[in-house]
């Protein structure tokens, strides 16, 4: 499609933003900032790689929610650009976790499962609440979809960390923690690539290949 698209719908301001969606984004931003601090402390105390990965994910998601708030009401092209950057950050997080897990495989000790499980449970409650708030907006443009995928992946990641804590407690080994870290990395990579593809398709429709 020619650049004329960008002189029309692609360049025009977006539709009025639902107050519910804006409030949900602000709530998600605050919750993610708070939980980043909680999980950084919890990962340092327990020595859990998956909990540390989840803490970094909270930080990345807080930045993503801030970007989403910044581009609300902007044109489709600008929202797609923001979504592409967020997808790239999600994929980058997945690569980072893969490296961290590989390092811990060679040098790490089994984490302390009780504090690991307690922090993961708190994080699951927080992320489940965020996911429920954002569920109604999951079928929007690439920018809105990336926000939903972040919240969904967080909740799944927290549940996985809880299962890893049970596995570490039962086996006394580090492999359940490392396995969950790898699963979280795969989720981040998959979601990041999906968001980047949708964002690129929206940019292409605006003549910005």
Automatic annotation (TrEMBL):
The chain crosses the membrane at residues 24-42, 62-80, 87-105, 117-135, 155-172, 178-196. The keyword Transmembrane helix applies. It holds the Pfam family Cation_efflux. InterPro entries: Cation_efflux_TM, Cation_efflux_TMD_sf. It is a multi-pass membrane protein. Keywords: Membrane, Transmembrane, Transmembrane helix. It is found in: Membrane. It comes from the Bacteria. Residues 25-203 form the Cation efflux protein transmembrane domain. Its main location: membrane. The keyword Membrane applies. This is Cation transporter. It comes from Uliginosibacterium flavum.
